[in-house]
Each structure stands twice: as C-alpha cells, then as structure tokens.
Amino acid sequence: MLDEDVPVWWEFLETWGYLFDRIYYDCLLGGPFYSEKQLQDPMLRMWRATTSKRADAIAELKDELWIIEVAYRPGLRAIGQLQTYRALWIRDPKILKPEKTILVCRALDPDFGDAASMYGISIFVM
Questions:
Q1: Is 126 helix (H, G, I), strand (E, B) or coil?
Q2: Average pLDDT, stretch 103-125?
Q3: Segment 51-78, tens digit of pLDDT
Q4: Taking the C-alpha atoms of 29, 31, 37 and 38 in order, what is their torsion angle to the nearest 10 degrees?
Q5: How many domains does the chain have?
Q6: Are 68 and 3 a contacting pair, CB within 8 Å?
Q7: Would you say the pTM of this structure is higher than 0.85?
Q8: 104 and 126 Cβ atoms separated by less than 8 Å
Q9: Which of 15, 23, 109, 115 has an alpha carbon within 20 to 30 A of 46's alpha carbon?
C-alpha cells in the first residue's frame, strides 16, 4: 500500500472493519512454488517474495473473503490487479470461502467505476 493510500485504508477500517474476522496484509499470490524445505533457503524465500504478486489486504468475513486493493485515485491498472489477484487466489485458495474483489479509494472516475462493476468489483469511496 502506498503512503497516500494509508489514510484511505484507515478510514475504511473505521467504517467497515467490524465486518472482518481477520485481515492479512501484503499477501503473496502466484509466483514460483517452493516446498517448505526449499523455503528454508533465504535466497529462494527472497526470490519468491520478489516475484509474487501482492494484494494490499485480504479480509476474512464469516462467509466470504474480500481481496482488497487500496488506491487513493485508482486508474485502469487497479481493475487488472484485482482480476489477476482473484485468478491467482482461485488457483491456490488458502481459505475455502467465496471470494469478492474490493477496491477502496478516495476519488473515482465515473467511467472507471462503471467498468469495474462490469467485472464484479465492489467499490468503496471514502
């Protein structure tokens, strides 16, 4: 999460944080797969962390999971990020609950919001 996004995230948590059972930050998705034994090698651990994609947050609710991207003023890239994070999660779910993609932002272009909704992305403008 970029520095300018952090206040947006805190405001989101103040309003909606009560919904979450757990929140995981800077979540690795995709990247190379290594066994637990291989991950004891610090270079392989670092390589995996460097080459994996990273969701800003994954929030676990009672009956579902939210894959969250936070962006003060999102661009088209945010739609692609959320679609990619969801695809990677579906291929390797760590928690077996239905997933939703969520964008948390401060400002939103109307065209962007319309396009995001077509992909099932829920948007919270703070």
A1: coil
A2: 93
A3: 889 999 999 999 999 999 999 999 889 9
A4: -160
A5: 1
A6: no
A7: yes
A8: yes
A9: 23
